[in-house]
């Protein structure tokens, strides 16, 4: 059986040797995958740590939405990815997870425009948070995006958690130009992305700004008009994906929640989790200084696999156990380690991750090409056999 590297697992770019049926009942999946002695360990682990201080966390998944025509992939088309994304969100809610988040990439065989998917997930679920991580604002018309986001949030009953940012390294050269956008004179493309974000945030306030026509097709309310549909409260559920301390401080000043992923600018040479924890603390300090009247949220992403059975060991039993350093977009970056171990060891390793301890939300990157049932098992293993012992549940 093929073994996946942790790097593949983190990106979701993996393949399963058999096509997997669409989601069935979550409890049936649990019984299918949790065989062997490992499933008996949690009681001992819970007893050992029952006096541990509790730090509850929201736990969700983050899918990159890859597809491939390979016969080893459970997602062989865009249709497969979209439908299985819906099924996985439903399964995650059944299992007690808190969030279903999706990556957004353009010009790639991955999930792109997120709002149709978010709207359907919102209609198919009733409790779970629904989000992105992240939408590249260089590609976005903030006015049209505000309408789409408002619609998706209303359909979900106010469960949208929208992650936005400047975006990740691109598949094509200056892809945003093909969408009709170009930086203003003196701007970088990152500046343009932040400018689009600021406009988007202003629009979400719901204040009127457009002069009504004296001869409208339908009667207008008095005063200046805003974009509709407007969803009250969405403005406080916008997150900024930050890869540096500087952009985390900017996000705090703008009143956005913080998303910090498995990649960060290497600013001190320290281990990834130490640098990320410092980034979170700096963000929270800047938030207080800005004087916002509500508490922000902070999420971190991790690739975490509890090795419960032979299949888990075959896929992830031989993984990267240390940070990696490289150059991305002319930036020295540190890529955080992945975690793959039997629950007892996994608990001890995760306990030492300073950034996870600082965050209130943990997003588990899932290998979506392994299919809905296997990924539901991955989530269930963490929720059932790891999270309680760490005080996350």
Automatic annotation (TrEMBL):
One GO term describing the cellular component: cytosol
Oxidoreductase in keyword set: yes
Luciferase-like domain: residues covered: 64-312
Entry keyword annotation includes Metal-binding: no
Keywords: Monooxygenase, Oxidoreductase
A Pfam family matched in the record: Bac_luciferase
EC number: 1.14.14.3
InterPro entries reported in the protein's UniProt record: Bact_Lucif_Oxidored (IPR050766), Luciferase-like_dom (IPR011251), Luciferase-like_sf (IPR036661)
One Gene Ontology term of the molecular function aspect: alkanal monooxygenase (FMN-linked) activity
Protein name as catalogued: Alkanal monooxygenase alpha chain
Organism this protein belongs to: hydrothermal vent metagenome
């Amino acid at each position: 059986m093929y073994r996946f590297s942790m790097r593949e697992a983190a990106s979701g770019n993996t393949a399963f040797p058999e096509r997997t049926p669409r989601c069935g009942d979550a409890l049936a999946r649990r019984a299918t995958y949790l065989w062997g002695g490992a499933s008996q360990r949690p009681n001992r682990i819970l007893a050992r740590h029952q006096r541990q201080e509790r730090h509850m966390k929201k736990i969700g998944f983050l899918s990159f939405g890859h597809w491939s025509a390979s016969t080893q992939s459970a997602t062989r088309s865009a249709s497969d990815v979209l439908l299985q994304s819906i099924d996985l969100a439903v399964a995650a809610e059944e299992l007690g997870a808190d969030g279903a988040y999706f990556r957004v990439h353009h010009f790639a065989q991955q999930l792109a425009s997120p709002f149709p998917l978010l709207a359907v997930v919102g209609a198919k679920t009733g409790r779970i948070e629904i989000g992105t991580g992240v939408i590249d604002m260089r590609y976005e018309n903030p006015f049209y995006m505000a309408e789409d986001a408002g619609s998706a949030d209303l359909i979900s009953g106010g469960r949208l958690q929208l992650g936005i940012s400047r975006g990740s390294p691109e598949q094509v050269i200056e892809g945003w130009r093909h969408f009709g956008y170009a930086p203003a004179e003196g701007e970088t493309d990152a500046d343009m992305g932040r400018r689009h974000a600021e406009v988007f945030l202003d629009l979400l306030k719901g204040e009127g700004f457009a002069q009504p026509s004296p001869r409208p097709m339908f009667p207008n309310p008095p005063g200046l008009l805003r974009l509709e549909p407007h969803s009250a409260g969405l403005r406080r559920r916008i997150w900024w994906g930050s890869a540096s301390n500087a952009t985390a401080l900017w996000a705090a000043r703008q009143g956005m929640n913080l998303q910090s992923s498995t990649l960060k600018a290497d600013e001190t040479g320290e281990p990834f989790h130490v640098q990320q924890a410092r980034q979170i603390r700096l963000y929270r300090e800047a938030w207080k200084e800005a004087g916002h009247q509500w508490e922000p949220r902070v999420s971190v992403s991790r690739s975490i696999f509890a090795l419960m059975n032979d299949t888990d060991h075959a896929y992830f039993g031989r993984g990267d156990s240390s940070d990696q350093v490289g150059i991305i977009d002319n930036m020295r970056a540190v890529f955080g380690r992945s975690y793959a171990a039997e629950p007892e060891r996994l608990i001890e390793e995760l306990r030492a991750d300073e950034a996870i301890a600082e965050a209130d939300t943990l997003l588990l990157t899932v290998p979506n090409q392994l299919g809905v049932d296997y990924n539901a098992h991955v989530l269930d293993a963490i929720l059932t056999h790891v999270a309680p012992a760490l005080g996350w549940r």
